[in-house]
Amino acid sequence: MKIIKVKDYNELSDLTSKIIIKEIAKKSNLVISLPTGKSPLGTYKNLIKEYKKGKVDFSRIKTFNLDEYYPVKKNDIKSYRYYMFNNLFNKINIKKENIHLLDGTTKSPIKECKYYEEKIRKNPIDLQILGIGVNGHIGFNEPGSEKNSKTRLVNLAPETVKRNKYLGKALTMGIYTILKSKKIILLASGKEKAVAVKDLILGDVDKNLPASFLRESKNITLIIDKQAASLL
Ligand code: F6R
Prior knowledge:
By secondary structure, the chain is α/β, with parallel strands linked by helices. Helix 7 links the parallel strand 9 and strand 10. Helix 1 packs across helix 2. The radius of gyration is 16 Å and the shape is globular. The chain starts with a strand and ends in a 7-residue tail after the last strand. The structure holds fructose -6-phosphate (F6R). The site of fructose -6-phosphate has 13 residues, from loops. Fructose -6-phosphate (F6R) binds next to loops.
């Protein structure tokens, strides 16, 4: 596990966007898996800035999103679809057909998750970007999630319901699906992440802290700022 400590959220976002741009320069049809939330927002802003300067071309990349609320309407401002289009996809030259999102309107979550797994199997993820929940979740793999879990419908943990102000369930890539990615980068910023980061780095590999399964991946880099690293 590689750990990169940075000063603050701005440095974390700078570094992460630089890594993504470098990976796209190396492989123009990079397959990248993306999270939502606060952690990647600065990174997405930087990517848009660099795109406008002509420093990066997204026309051949493919994306998969990590998760989506369920049920949620496509144009609901709470949906992760809305977040992604609003904060990134509408502002760069990614092709619509290369964007993959879990469908929060599906009538058959089982079919939808199977279809998503199948698409990922055909387009293996080169670069997986993750945030981490204060309870150690990755994607919506909440405490108790199994290492061999695949994309599926899950219940949100009570603290996630409270923090995210969302009462329903979610569709999420599984731990197994995430661990299959060739490279994984986890972002953690701020004091509220310090306990989860400490447990991830120093604790046992334990399903009660799903992020700890990442320790079993050879290609994991944590980018953490001073506050998130404050208990190490
Ligand atoms: C979101 C996701 C979640 C978040 C996590 C941290 O797509 O997969 O695991 O990454 O809840 O959220 P923020 O970044 O808002 O602190």
